[in-house]
Design brief:
This protein has 210 residues and is of the alpha+beta class. The protein has a single domain, classed as Sandwich (Jelly Rolls), CATH 2.60.120. 17% of the residues lie in helices and 32% in strands. The strands form 3 sheets. A 7-stranded antiparallel beta sheet has the order 1-11-8-13-6-3-2, covered by helices on one side. Strands 7-12-9-10 form a 4-stranded antiparallel beta sheet, with no helix packed on it. Bound molecules: N-(carboxycarbonyl)-S-(3-nitrobenzyl)-L-cysteine and fe (iii) ion.
Length: 210
Amino acid sequence: SSPAPGAVHVPGWLDLDRQRELVAACREWARGPVPMRHTRLPRGGVMSVQSVCVGWHWRPYSYSRTALDVNGARVADFPSWLAELGRAAVADAYRDPAASAAYAPDTALVNFYGADAVMGMHQDRDERSDAPVVSLSIGDTCVFRFGNTRTRTKPYTDVELESGDLFVFGGASRHAYHGVPRVRPRTGDPATGLAAGRLNLTLRTTGLPG
Ligand code: MD5
Ligand code: FE
């Protein structure tokens, strides 16, 4: 379904095997070269979500190859299979072969939400590209709050994102405010390999050279 122009929600897009593969890959990335951690905010806060990056390292509010705010290591390379998964996601969401063939994500942000983790309303503005963002959810269901491009408040639409769901944010939705006000504990299937919590992978195009 499409809650706004350019935004497409495809429930159950990832089968259980694919979810298990992604959980296993995220476990490896979480170990290093840059460990998964709570990102520190410039004003001294710490995000309740834990994150690890692939391809490019995101810190508030820029991308780099090395994680100078964590351990100084270079992040893991962005694998070609992940770009291929992104193209398949865009193809299925938009049903537009040209849009999917041109899709070349170069970074993934992996977010892990424990039972009490939340993400406040924000825009994703650090990418120098208008390419869509591909979001994949595994584990516990969450409430995803999909807002507007002007304010972090109403109007917004709350959408339940379940394990296996795909969401693609492009076009006019690319710069909408959004957040995760709550996770629904123990709603996920441990057969994904995730005993508890929610995992979200977002594939993005930084627009940065090389
Ligand atoms: C999540 N992550 O569920 C979300 C999925 C983040 C973040 O928000 O920045 O790590 S990405 C949702 C997204 C991306 C780009 C645009 C819009 C939503 N949108 O217009 O609503 O952990
Ligand atoms: Fe975001």
